[in-house]
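Aim 2, interim progress. The first record below pairs a target sequence with its structure tokens.
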Amino acid sequence: MYRAVKRVFSVRNKQAFALRLVMVGLLATFIVTAFATVESEEARSPDIYLLLTAFLFVAVGAFYKLQQTSLRRDQMLMMQRKENAAMRVALDTHAIVSVTDAVGTIIDVNERFVELTGYTRSEAIGRTPRFLHECAEGENTFHVIRKSLDQGLSWHGEHCSVTKNGERRWFEVTVVPMMDRRGKLMKAISVRTDVTEQRAAEGDRQMRAILDNLQDEVFIYNLDDTSLRYMNRAACDRFGWALDEVAGKSMRDIREDFEIDRFRAHVAPLLEGKVDATYAQGKLAGSPVEVSTSILETADGERVFISILRDIRERHALARAKLSSVSVVSHELRTPLTAISGAIKMLRGRFDQDMSREAAGVVEIAERNCDRLLFIVNDILDLEKIEAGKMAFDKKHIDLNGLVNEAVTTLQTYASGLNVRIALESDCDSAMVEADQARLMQVMSNLVSNAAKYSSSGDVVTVSLADNGNCWRVAVRDSGPGISRENQKKLFDTFAQISAADGKKRLGTGLGLAITRRILDNHQARIAVQSEIGKGSTFYFDIPKLVDDGSNRMRVIAA
């Protein structure tokens, strides 16, 4: 009895305090009743005392039972509070939590929100979550979430958000509305989990599954230091590496002669956003290859290079077979064509004054077409010689500056016939190279005549010579119709017939650029093109410098 009463009186809450008051009242009533009946005869009867005592015990027992029930309920509530606090800690540790009011204004955020978004509490509270949805995907999701909340529905899904520093991140989100008794939205609780890494990993897994089955060789590497991040199976097989051996290697391990400065110059238009991809052809481990390089944006927004290397031995074999069959015919054609051309020139020289205007016109047409046929035949035979390695290159020390000037002067007559002017830009007093002057002049003739041919009347073709590190860069720029990305891949193939973007037809053999590239290959020079539809094209080549090694001897700098 005493212990029960003591326990009741020791509870420090409002309900226990009320019980104490009741029990004090009962005790007081018992005492008062006992003293009040001392003088009466009925009070002397023990029945009254027993009745009051029994009543008191029943009341105390009832109140004790009620107190025990209250204590258990309080313990359960305290346990629930502890569990809720533990869940809140776990939630704050692993998820982003934000609370918005009925109109969508943020009224509270947790520390994880501050950590992952970069916004402080003061920067977030008082704003709507729209500032987290600045990307196109997130903006659309924001409206969908608001529509669900206005209908009293929870929303679950993924959305893209933009952090304070501009980084795009993906979150798995659950938004739960809290409604009042009338079904009106009071507030909403958003719980976000960062799934950017998981999403990127899944994207990488799917992409690698696709790339690993490609026959082309794929290299993915960083923009800053060209360290490799991925090579597909075909690429690893070429170098005899396992897939897990790629980490820690760079593009320098792919090619011993890889030079970062030259590579930077090659991909500069790509980094500047002028082109979607760059293309180059060369040899790797003795095999002819074609490499296209573009920029890939990963799932977490990081930009990396992706180069796709294609072995073009079969293409070259087919081209050589085609060239071989055509060259046989060309050999047979050159002798009679030369004889016909000589006969026409002799005819014009002897009887030009005696021929009527109509006859002279016919002879002129015959001579022009005969010269064109001879030009085609000579191009085919030149290409055959280069492919067979039989073309002789008489390389000497020459001044590229003088050769470019001579080319501009010589080709101005041809350009003038098309009402096109050729302008020269050069800041080099001397640009020494080791080259075959006649063959380099052939290269300049092909590039400049093509630029003039694809220019409009009144346009200017610009020929420039500039210092480009270890190389001299010669560029020919026009304002013509431009070349599509797909056609740029075929420009230097033999017999390539490229449809002009403006729809106009120009005469050509499809061999000029193929011969140009092979001549430059023999000079350890590389040719490339930058072009955009409607904005013209720039063909340029980098040729190694010839410099004094300090002992009055000239040497070629490695390209």
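The second target in this work package is listed in the same format:
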Amino acid sequence: MGSEHRVIFTPSGLEGRTTSGTTVLEAARELGVDLDSVCGGRGICGRCQVLPSFGEFAKWAVHSAGSHIAAANTTEGSYSGKRPLGQGARLGCQAKITGDLVLEVPPESQLNAPVIRKEINLEGFTLDPISTLHVVAVPKPELGVSTSLAQTVMDLLAEDWSLDVTHVQPHALRQLQESLGETESTVTVQVRRDLKGLKIENVRRGVSVGLFGIAVDVGSTTIAGHLIDLATGGVLATSGLMNPQIRLGEDLMSRVSYAMMNPGGEEQLTRLVREALSDLVRNLATQAEVELCDVAEMVLVGNPVMHHLVLGLDPTPLGQAPFVLATTSAVEIQGEDLDLPLPHATVYVSPCIAGHVGADTAAMILAEGPHHSQETQLLVDIGTNAEIVLGNESQLYAASSPTGPAFEGAQISCGQRATPGAIEKVRIDRETLEPVVKIIGSDLWSNESGFLEATAEIGVTGICGSGIVETLAEMFLSGLMTSDGVITDNRARCDRIVEDDRTYAFVLYRETGARRGHDVVITQNDVRAVQLAKAALRAGIDLLMEHAAVDRLEAIRLAGAFGAHIDPVYAMVLGLIPDSPVDLVRAVGNAAGTGAARMLLSRNQRSEVEEVVRTVEKIETATEERFQELFVDAMAFPHATSPTPHLKTLIDFSHVSEASTESRRRGRKRREDHKEV
């Protein structure tokens, strides 16, 4: 019997122990990791490729070294399949584990690739382009006329287009020389507006009408982009991919820790995100059948850690108080300086607000416009960090709460990202306590005729964020779980409650057939992970409401992929958001991406976001004494101290466990004590 080693797979976060000499594919199958293979492990198909990650991983307290995976054998060394072996990649069916190891399963090796759900909304938007194209006919040069090529073109732009151009970029001078000869020539000039005025950015031979831009939301989990026609505002292509940095850290602080603990870690993280951006840019251009040289503008938004890593700045100051940003101002840089395949693009990196509230939050504010509203709005973007904005035209407050990746399926025993096969909707019968589920990839509920046949190929593989929220809410409302989050012993009423060490677990879905035994089970630890995440989010919201001195909200906007697919009623049942009339709650999709697109298409929007970030009051949850008290109260379902009058008009609480009353009593006492103070 060989010695045992820890093996951790990202981005799923699944981990376990396996014996020395076990192949990566065998370990993946033992742990239920989504790793593709169609050749029976013979090293032919190349679909089981994995990327070993080496270094110190504080999150898992593990050291992953190159010596912990065996050298390539003859089969792997001579592999020449249709899918080329990626740089640093290994064939999971051949590579053997010899020590503690962290392994990334890239999207192309996943049988069920992640569903990147990112959309933008540009309705009612006025174009005010930064770059425009202008065709001019340059006369044949004449002997004795001393006017330079640059001045000739600038004069023509003034005469034909009423443009007061004052500067020509050095590379545009070379393009002028190449485009203009001894005869009359027609050229297309890209004129760009910046703070210094108008300048000639690029010159093309002949008549050219294609001018494009790319807006990108660089998330810690997913990176989503849109290729847009700068002349019309039309979205020509949309694409998204997983952020490959996940293999070096599931959340932002673990990536900062990786940079701190591993020499060259910061450069590695920067290289990974820039390579991903390059892949995204190429995918968008291919979709839209656009030449990369015709992309003139790019806008990037992201949280502060992503902001720093894309720019090649040190992220480690963001991992410790006082969380100082290198800059909060907008940054303009050439695409090639970010290692992007964009020879003629200027990249605008949106301004940040503060240490943990970044350019993505600024873009969300721009998209939703609370600073123009008389209503008190709450904007929430739930990811590995939750960005929260509260306020109206009088004042905006912002905070970031460390929710962790539980809402994205990580830290949950059967959790996974939003891929085909993931449970996303759940209902539990109040009398029989029997659950029914709906998965991504099928419109049928599990109790409907044809469900097993319709899902035979993809199966029920786990549960994603929206499914986790609905499951816990349904368990609470069915009396299977107290408001303190304790799964109760209901074995006499329901055979789905099972012992799990010294606690209980709930079998949400039982697999049959070939996948028998791969049940989806909700454990007590799963409930605790969600409680911690939702309490961090809710405490951040409550803290902002206290600072703003408001006790009711007039609009709640849920941004991001998670916000787009969570049911507002279930969000209130768990206490993720304050009790409010449900018609005030609305999903706004990828608000950060929408804000990025607005900045791509408008000088005025860039000016507006640069102005508004200076007015936002940042509340630092890490240093606020009240945050911990609010966090404790928010651990309960829905909440230990806040009443829920609106929710009670929508939901039947008659089946809620009586064991929950003690939590409510403790909550009332805390509230009374706080009022006395």
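The mean pLDDT is 88. This observation will shape the mutagenesis plan for the next reporting period.
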